[in-house]
Design a protein that fits this description.
There is one protein chain. Helix content is about 75%, strand content about 0%. It is mostly helical. It has one domain. Helix 6 packs across helix 9, helix 9 crosses helix 12 and helix 10 crosses helix 11. It is globular. The two termini are about 25 Å apart.
């Protein structure tokens, strides 16, 4: 009985904190010119346009749900519905933790205690491929935009890191090493890795094009290649910075300002698009995830 009360309080705190951080960032952000936003909304609002943009958010999270369902099958098969519950509740739990670290614990709670390390490892694979794609597309974007020196510097850092990785691959920290991690990754069937990569590519294309169409909605008339390269660069650099999920739009907005101001895009448009992307792809899923958090029943006991 006591455990149930504690769990109920913890779940309520997670949900309340999530909504508090969302409200605070939307209410206290001085960069947001709500007057201009609603003026533009009145001129351009349409049901079809709203549904079009929402379809990208649905596709974005659905692909993430399929990614997790695919990887979770390494432990045991789960349905799309079960995967959705785990992904959305984990997103809610991770919104106020650094770099969404709470997401790892959130998913682990849906499995037996003895499976926790494996769940965290699989979630690392799930997020890792998305980060790799963000880096690859981001470097291409920077090159297209003319930041070749940046790209050469990034390659220099990558070569240095790869060299250090090779030299330290056998060094163990608390029984773990890069060699052991590589072996664990290879244990996962290749078909699961291939599907994970394909779904990650699809997800990247979905949210980057949602960003692109939002710029078009705000009358930003830049060539497709320039816009997509800038979006890729923004995601790459913003993802490299430590942040909280509830501050995601502020970080991406600040990085976006650096690139888009040079292209002649108004500051308030850049900030609003970053905010809308955050609202559509984080806030709305968190609202749904809050329901799953409140309904959550942990598997505290390991199965025999």
């Amino acid at each position: 009985m006591q455990n149930k009360i504690v769990l109920s309080v913890v779940k309520l705190i997670i949900v309340l904190l999530s909504f508090y951080f969302i409200y605070r960032e939307l209410h206290d952000n001085e960069q947001l010119n709500w007057g201009k936003f609603f003026e533009l909304l009145n001129r351009k609002w349409s049901v079809s346009g709203l549904l079009f943009l929402l379809s990208f958010s649905v596709a974005n999270r659905y692909l993430e749900i399929l990614k997790w369902q695919n990887l979770a099958a390494v432990i045991h098969p789960i349905t799309v519905g079960e995967s959705a519950k785990q992904v959305l509740s984990a997103l809610t739990a991770g919104i106020f933790t650094p770099n969404g670290l709470g997401e790892y614990a959130g998913k682990a709670l849906y499995f037996e205690t003895k499976k926790a390390k494996k769940v965290i490892f699989l979630n690392l694979i799930c997020n890792g491929i998305q980060m790799i794609l963000t880096v690859v597309f981001g470097i291409i974007g920077l090159w297209i935009l003319g930041y070749q020196l940046w790209v050469l510097g990034i390659f220099g850092v990558c070569i240095l890191l790869m060299g250090l990785t090779y030299l330290t691959k056998s060094i163990k920290i608390k029984g773990y090493s890069l060699e052991k991690l590589t072996a664990k990754i290879r244990e996962i069937p290749k078909k699961i890795h291939r599907k994970n990569i394909l779904l990650a590519v699809g997800r990247y294309l979905v949210f980057s094009h949602q960003y692109y169409f939002l710029f078009l909605a705000f009358d930003v008339a830049l060539p497709y290649g320039t816009l997509m390269a800038s979006i890729a660069a923004v995601y790459f650099l913003a993802s490299s910075l430590p942040s909280f999920q509830f501050l995601d739009f502020a970080v991406k907005g600040s990085v976006a300002l650096f690139f888009f101001e040079k292209l002649g895009v108004n500051e308030w448009i850049v900030v609003f698009i970053a905010t809308l992307m955050w609202f559509l792809n984080v806030v709305l899923p968190v609202v749904i995830g809050s329901y799953f958090v409140l309904k959550f029943k942990p598997k505290w006991k390991s199965s025999p």
